[in-house]
Design a protein that fits this description.
Blueprint lengths: L7 E3 L2 E3 L3 E3 L16 H12 L4 E8 L16 H16 L3 E7 L27 E2 L12 E2 L2 H20 L4 E6 L4 H6 L14 H4 L1 H14 L5 E6 L10 H13 L4 E5 L17 H10 L4 E4 L5 H10 L4 E4 L1 H5 L3 H9 L18
Parallel strand pairs: 3-4, 3-12, 4-5, 5-8, 6-7, 8-9, 9-10, 10-11, 11-12
Antiparallel strand pairs: 1-2
Bound molecules: flavin mononucleotide.
The site of flavin mononucleotide has 20 residues, from strand 4 and helix 10.
């Protein structure tokens, strides 16, 4: 048996293998109301049929101002939660765990999707003023409003409410998006957090927004629900968030009930060198895995079954996440099983050879 196809249990949930679909924005809420649609059912459902252990839905806003674009999905109201139920039901029927990536874009909100325009949508053009840990804009984006201390506490409650709705929507697993320069990452990084209140200063204070979100979520959803945190483990800048800081914050998260760390990188600032290449974020994931007790997931240019298996065999990484590969081939987990010579019992009956009369 390979490690890639070994099940993994996190709290009350067991994933049938260690191939998880990475969250990927679809920008497909045509009415700009955060409502998942048929697109989401088919897109995400296909990847469950394709054999993934867990299918993670895209960055889904906990507040309307937290959308990257007006076409993002949301979970800030009960109507959206009801619509997500169709997605989670389908994923479950096809043997995968469903996860939602709870997100807030912070100062990186209010943009066009790539096929509708370019760059920020200004307030005059129907966009909105983003919020952030800082009043400083991301280059060429709308200038954010720096959240007051009271507003930060209100924002924490948005995450907790969204988590409760996610459970009502049938999601098995929750992920907090703390990566890619979005709001939680804006609090974590010293580059975008110069605050002097209890949410800024030392690493522990910069992590308070995330830790308070996790505490609130754990209290609201109980002990059974797995909670993942996605980090950018480095800003690729000496004065930014580093992998050492990331491991420290992961330990703080573990102490308040986080279960898995999903390690990505970058996104906070422009003009840095990112060492793109096969498995380029695996060393970061391994560094974090060496410091925490919880399982760690690696993501980023993992595109081959042997490569995926080797990562699990030779590092402390426990889970492989695939993004673009699964856009090209929704059935890649089944393909990987075939390539590695693993018999799985979740080939869709409809696709098994011999069901059509000869
Ligand atoms: C179309 C697209 C949308 C993405 N949207 C998200 C997202 O919503 N949340 C997130 O954390 N990462 C997002 N990412 C990053 C992926 O989750 C993944 O980390 C990245 O693509 C690297 O993995 P890969 O090389 O397997 O694609 C997105 C990537 C793509 C290609």
């Amino acid at each position: 048996m390979t490690k890639l196809f070994e099940p993994i249990t996190i709290r009350s949930k067991t994933s049938r293998n260690r191939i998880w679909i990475a969250p990927m924005c679809q920008y497909s809420c045509e009415n700009q109301d955060g409502m998942p649609s048929n697109w989401h059912v088919v897109h995400l459902g296909s990847r469950a049929v394709g054999g993934a252990g867990l299918v993670m839905c895209e960055a889904t806003a906990v507040h309307p101002a937290g959308r990257i674009s007006p076409w993002d999905t949301g979970i800030w109201n009960d109507e959206q939660a009801k619509a997500w139920k169709e997605v989670t039901d389908f994923i479950r029927e096809h043997g995968a765990l469903s996860a939602i990536q709870l997100a807030h874009a912070g100062r990186k909100a209010s943009n066009f999707r790539s096929w509708s325009g370019q760059g920020a949508i200004t307030v005059e053009n129907g966009g909105w003023t983003p919020v952030s840990s800082t009043g400083e804009a991301f280059p060429e984006y709308n200038t954010p409003h720096e959240l007051t201390t009271e507003e930060v506490y209100d924002s924490i409650q948005d995450w907790v409410d969204a988590a409760k709705r996610s459970i009502a929507a049938g999601f098995d697993v929750l992920e907090i998006h703390a990566a890619h320069g979005y709001l939680v990452h804006q609090f974590l990084s010293p580059i975008t957090n110069q605050r002097t209140d209890e949410f800024g200063g030392s690493l522990e204070k910069r992590a308070k927004y995330l830790v308070d979100i996790l505490k609130g979520i754990r209290q609201a959803v109980g002990e059974d629900v797995p909670v993942i945190v996605r980090f950018s483990a480095t800003d690729y800048r000496a004065d930014g968030f580093t992998v050492e800081q990331c491991a420290e914050v992961a330990k703080l998260c573990e102490a308040v009930g986080a279960d898995v760390f999903d390690i990505s990188s970058g996104g906070l600032v422009l003009g840095v060198q990112i060492p793109f290449g096969p498995g380029y974020q695996v060393p970061l994931a391994n560094d974090v895995a060496e410091e925490v007790d919880s399982p760690v997931a690696a993501v980023g240019l993992i595109t081959d079954s042997k490569q995926a298996e080797e990562i699990l065999q030779t590092t402390d990484v426990e889970i492989i996440m695939i993004g673009r590969l699964s856009l090209r081939d929704p059935y890649w987990p089944l393909r990987a099983a075939h390539e590695l010579g693993v018999e799985v019992d979740y080939w869709p009956n409809q696709y098994v050879r011999g069901t059509y009369p000869a």
